[in-house]
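Figure 6 in text form: structure in, sequence out.
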């Protein structure tokens, strides 16, 4: 048995103090400087990539925020476009009522009140009527449906409005259909033809 005890003592590692580690010999200074330069270059590269990525992310956040705001502003655009023919019908009904009824007629007054209330309600959602008559022709908000020679107005002036136009929060959702003035042809030029 004593032999077994001796064997078990030999099998166990010494719990004594750990042997002192040998100091690592310093590499030559040229290799260390090259390693430091490479590490600094890698660090600078990673920092510049991080800065670009951070800037891209901020730009992405701003773009998404603009898209969300735009979606909110124009969320009702399709509904409002669907209501424009109703406003057109109300305009035509008012014109007919004015032609056939006195100004103090309660039916005419009621129709005018409903029309004004509809425009006021849609106006709270950003809808505005394009004022066209007498204004210079602007292709961004006007659509020329006819050209009319006249000497009474300067060329490219809107003479009449055939279809009312509307703007929703600065965006034209339907251009005004207009009659545009053009210079009359010279009568002497006609005779020479």
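Output sequence:
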């Amino acid at each position: 048995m004593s032999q077994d005890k001796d064997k078990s003592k030999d099998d166990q590692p010494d719990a004594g103090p750990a042997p002192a580690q040998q100091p690592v010999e310093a590499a030559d200074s040229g290799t260390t400087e090259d390693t430091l330069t490479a590490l600094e270059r890698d660090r600078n590269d990673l920092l510049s990539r991080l800065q670009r990525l951070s800037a891209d992310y901020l730009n992405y956040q701003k773009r998404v925020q603009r898209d969300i705001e735009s979606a909110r502003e124009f969320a009702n655009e399709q509904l409002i476009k669907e209501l424009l023919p109703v406003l057109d019908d109300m305009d035509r009904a008012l014109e007919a009522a004015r032609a056939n009824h006195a100004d103090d007629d309660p039916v005419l007054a009621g129709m005018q009140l409903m029309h004004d209330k509809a425009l006021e309600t849609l106006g709270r959602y950003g809808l505005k009527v394009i004022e066209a008559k007498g204004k210079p022709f602007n292709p961004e908000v006007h659509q020329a449906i006819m050209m009319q020679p006249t000497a009474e107005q300067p060329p490219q002036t809107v003479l009449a409005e055939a279809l009312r136009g509307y703007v929703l929060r600065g965006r034209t959702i339907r251009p005004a259909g207009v009659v545009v003035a053009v210079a009359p042809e010279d009568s002497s030029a006609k005779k020479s033809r």
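Caption detail: The helical segments are 2-11, 29-73, 77-100, 106-124, 187-192.
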